[in-house]
Amino acid sequence: MAPKKSPEADEDAASTTEGRFSAISPLTRLRSLLPAFLSGSPSPDSRTLPTTSTERRRASSVGASLDQDEFLSEKVIEQQEGGTGLTDTVAKKETVLYLAYGSNLSSKTFRGVRNIKPLSQVPVLVPELKLTFDLPGIPYAEPCFAGTQYRDPDAAEEQSVESTDDDSLMDGEYMSEKVPLMVETREVRSSDLHRNRWHKPLVGVVYEVTLADYAIIIATEGGGRGYRDVVVDCHAFSESYKPTDPVPNHPDTPPFKAHTLLSPAADEALKKIHAVKSGHSSVAHSPCPTTWLLADIGPHVRPDGEYAQPSARYLNLLITGAAEHELPVSYQEYLSQIRPYRITTMRQKFGKGIFIAVWGPPILSLLALSKVFAGPDGRSPPWLMTLGNVLFAVMWNSYDCIFKPMFGDGERTLEDTPPL
């Protein structure tokens, strides 16, 4: 492994190279939409995985553990860029704990499309994180994908109480003529479309994977620049916990360390929060970017990270994955209530057809090239990553400036769009 870098050096490196690999992450998810001959994905591994042992979880908190190394992804990338793969025997003997929360919950995606072979798994709660849908995908088809951002436990607990009060309004003894109006007003003012109704800790699954498989995850998730790899505290459910039990706000099981991928919009969100606290208004985003210089192209972040809705296909991966792992029933219900993106007008249907006709061939070509030129650890060459980054930036600019004004919204169902 390369020597450990300082946080300052890491920030400097991120500011100059952060955008190079961001387009690979949505491309990986799009492979699941393609025929098997193009995606090249094998059948999902049907093995029943053992539960990650208590000893292995305790080992994650040891100072020398890879699970505590906040610079592990950077070290992996350095080796990849230096032409050194992580598929040797030594790498296979080392394991990393990796937290999954999105489509990687589904064995079809994680063990099938990505061909990751986890050694063990354990369902967990992560109090410091929340689920988001702010990673841009393809307008009209796959508007966004799942990510995570940091969560304020105190604020979330207050929102949880308010949400419980709202739910109690629907009980028969409280029902009145005023309730429908109150609920309607709350829904019109809210832009969450059910997805921000979960105010408890993030629910996910921690997989134990080999270091070689971890390198593949980092490569196919954007090479460490599409998302940001972070180390978080995870809490396994107690042995007596049943899926039908309420999800605790404050887990009482011992924490252990695991790597996970933070949304690229998380840093921007933190900046906005600090700006508001300091009395400065947030910077307005132009719906039609005017900067087209290659040097300015970085990870594509939409102006409003809570605007887009995931597709029904993508949501189904999260729902089926949560059921596979027998995650809490209340969390499964929450996922099933998130409203997916739907096309509701002929204008949008025409727009989708034209958009796919224009951008489908270059995207499919990029997918095919990423399959041909991928190394043994799944990493594409830098020139291909840069090409993908440019392609996605231009594609989203064309949507903002041409397709959306002409054909309608390709990120959010029209009937769910809040009034201006």
Automatic annotation (TrEMBL):
Annotated GO MF terms: gamma-glutamylcyclotransferase activity
Keywords assigned by UniProt, alphabetized: Lyase
Region Disordered, annotated ranges: 1-22, 35-65, 152-171
Gene3D superfamilies, A to Z: Gamma-glutamyl cyclotransferase-like (3.10.490.10)
Annotated positions binding substrate: 98-103, 314
EC number(s) given by UniProt: 4.3.2.9
Sequence ranges of Acidic residues compositional bias: 155-170
Catalytic residues, chain numbering: 221
Signal peptide extent: none
Compositional bias (Polar residues): 40-53
Alphabetical list of PANTHER family matching this protein: GAMMA-GLUTAMYLCYCLOTRANSFERASE
The protein's name: gamma-glutamylcyclotransferase
